[in-house]
Amino acid sequence: MRPRLHLVPNAPVGADTECLRRVATGDVAALGDVYDRHAPALRRFAARATNPGDADDLVQSTFLTVVRIAGTYDGRTDTARPWLFGILARQIRQRKRSVARFARAILRMHTGASATTDSRDPVATDLERGLRKLSDAKRIVIVLAEVEGYSCPEIADILDVPVGTVWTRLHHARKELRAYIDEGGAR
Amino acid sequence: MKRWTGESRSAACPRTWEIEAARDGRLGEEAKERIDLHAGRCAECRRERDDLDRLARALRALPFAEPDDLAQRRTRQEVLRACDAEIAGRSIPPARRGTRFRAARVAFAVAVACVFAFAFANGWRARHGSEGLPPTSSAGTTVVDAVGDVDSIWSRVQESGVERIDLSAGTLHLRVRRPPNGRRVVVHVPDGEIEDVGTTFHVTVARGRTRSVVVDEGRVSVRLASAAPVFVDPGSPWSSPDSAPPTSVEGTTVDAGPRTSTRDAIPTTSPSLAKGHVPESTVHAVPPTSDSSAPSADSEEDATYLRVVHLAREGRDDDARAAAREYLRKFPEGFRRREMERIGR
């Protein structure tokens, strides 16, 4: 059964709303509270949705964006985590255009280890590789759905796309992953 | 290791698509119930459900290397530092500035340790005067002139748009000229950081702790792990409160003299000392005892000064004036003479 979204523990309802209101006035201390509550989850998501080496940079970009747009947070949800995931997802998509990402991709092509030398579980390795081969859009959706436990309407809200788009991306992401693994990661 | 199912995906049952649809919330409640009933009888649909569940479990089980505690704290500090710089670079209404500086405490427990070095080292100014530091260049880029005493241990490096200076021990004398969007200058001390706001200041670190901060020109923000952040202006030096309980300080200081800070929007208050107001950034709850029992003072001058501050804060204006005149008598060239002259009038 898919795990459901849980409220952030140990944070009273509305704590994020109050903190972000203070961040909008320049209160970095309040930003620290938001960081402590959500950065670990953001880092995990970033690591799975991109790669672990980029996770910290993406989390930092996310919080820099938070500083700029904290005043736009409407506090619709009890926790700001979906909102933060949305910002992070946009950061991931924007990375695609960066020259640095291109350079990293080139570097990985020349230095990446082959599956035959990897002693870990071959299925897990194929799954990781299959996940990397997905487009950013599909990868983000499947990680939010299957790892973070968000429903499709919640993902649509996070990414600000129609729910039909989420269904489509999720379906194709699963299809590509299963095909990749079934073929032994040969693609 | 068992591979993922190698069976053909061209399912014999035409309803297997509904398994995924139900999972993703694409079906209404009635349709969902029907496919659940169907799956109870259809091996193909049950296999599809199991495959989807297994894929989800495998994704959740992907290894993720959680950084160690030190790395996490370092990352947190870097992120909040970057965010603080982002906030500092924005235009913030003066009315909100106090809140922002209170918040700076968390972001950077940085440095305030300026200038008492001058007192400890028999006055850097007495030795070097204004010629101790090389002349600064004209505006446009951040210019940092740093001179360490003979026994000081320090280093300097530029990183990510920040001029980083590490002071491990001894006394360092700095003059900073920083345009509004210039490279930030941060002095890292063992117990925190000191960030310049366009200043000439002196920092002393001893036995792993920041002892004093004295500002000649401009302003510094002192943020140490053991205390709330304070701003230090000329004539309002900061010293380590070794045993004094921390006080709640605001980001406001008395404008003690000419300032060359590039942050013109920083609001300041100029409370009347005659009314018993004291620069909060320099107040520590030190009891009015003899010099030797002023735990946070490393010198007689510091102790005398802190006594004046305490008396003024308690509203004992006559005693404060007398103590200020005593200070001026004992230390006619003392660092706080301008402030003592105001109090002693």
Brief digest:
The complex is a heterodimer of chains A (187) and B (345). Chain A has 187 residues and is mainly alpha-helical.
Largest interface, Cβ cutoff 8 Å? A-B, 54 and 50 residues
Shape, principal axes of CA atoms of chain A: globular
Report the end-to-end length of chain A measured between terminal Cα atoms: 30 Å
Total helical segments of chain A: 9
Q: Tell me the distance between the termini of chain B.
A: 88 Å
Q: How many individual β-strands of chain B?
A: 10
What class do helices, strands and sheet pairing of chain A give? mainly alpha
Global morphology of chain B? elongated
Q: What does the oligomeric state look like here?
A: heterodimer
Instruction: Give me the strand/helix succession of chain B.
Output: HHHHHHHEEEEEEEEEEHHH
Strand content of chain A: under 5%
Derived from helix and strand composition plus strand pairing, the structural class of chain B reads: alpha+beta
Rg of chain B, Å, rounded: 30 Å
Q: What is the succession of H and E elements of chain A?
A: HHHHHHHHH
Weakly predicted, low-confidence segments of chain B: 1-9, 91-100, 126-139, 243-298
Describe the sheet with the most strands of chain A: none
Strand content of chain B: 15-25%
**Rounded Rg of chain A:** 18 Å
Poorly predicted sequence stretches spanning 5 or more consecutive residues of chain A: 1-9, 113-119
| Biggest sheet layout of chain B | 10 strands, mixed
Name the descriptors.
heterodimer; A: 187 residues; mainly alpha; globular; disordered N terminus; B: 345 residues; alpha+beta; 10 helices; elongated
Structure description:
The complex is a heterodimer of chains A (about 190) and B (about 350). Chain A is mainly alpha-helical and about 190 residues long. Helices cover about 70% and strands about 0% of the residues of chain A. Chain A has helices at about 15-25, 30-50, 50-70, 80-95, 100-110, 120-135, 135-145, 150-160, 165-180. The two termini of chain A are about 30 Å apart. Chain B has about 350 residues and is of the alpha+beta class. The longest helix of chain B is centred in the N-terminal third of the chain and has 21 residues, at about 70-90. Chains A and B meet through α2, α3, α6, α7 and α9 of A and α3, α4 and α5 of B.
